[in-house]
Amino acid sequence: MTDRSEATTVLIVEDEDHLADLYAEYLTDQYDVRTAYGGQQAINELDATVDLVLLDRRMPVVSGNEVLATIEEQGIDVQVAMVTAVDPDFDIIDLGVDDYVVKPVSKGTLRNVVDRLETISKYNEQRRKLTAKKLKRNVLEVEKTRPELTNSERFTALEGEIDRLEADVEELAESLEERQITRGN
Fold it and tell me: Taking the model in full, what pTM does it have?
């Protein structure tokens, strides 16, 4: 995303100020970054403009799990990566997170997590658009004659949009597969 107004907004939630600031430094050049130095501040910062949350799990007063519960209860549409010193156990299966990263976290790892989640978000959005366009095409193919479809500039444009979206979705899927292989999954 080249336009800063369209940059993905990342909320870093970390009770250790130096880590929160370090993570922000890792990401500021590419993303719109906000920092919350604890769970309650994170809850106060959460709104529709946040795209992605990097969430510490173990924090005093309001834990990462409590922040996650608030996100789920309020139906906030945001991707969450748990970035924590808590080693994963089978409880993460039911945890409503999109990724789980164990500290210490390098700049490269953190950027890869954010990049991957941003790509997943783009993939899902493009798939949604593609499905909507295909449904419209299908309705028109049932309701209109072949000559009507062939002579319609709008239908031809729709088919072009579908082709473009299919190519975009395929490219994003390949990118995600490469990222999974790189991560070792």
Answer: 0.79
For the cut 70, the answer to whether the pLDDT of residue 183 exceeds it is: no
Structure tokens at 154: 């709008």
User: What's the rounded mean pLDDT across residues 9-22?
Assistant: 96
Choices 3.40.50.300, 3.90.550.10, 2.20.28.10, 3.40.50.2300: CATH for 4-105:
3.40.50.2300
* Amino acid 181: pLDDT: 57
Q: Provide, for the chain, the percentages of residues in helix, strand and coil under a 3-state DSSP scheme, each rounded to the nearest 5.
A: 60, 15, 30
Burial of 50 (0-12, 13-18, 19+ CB in 10 A): buried
Element (H, E) at 164: helix 153-183
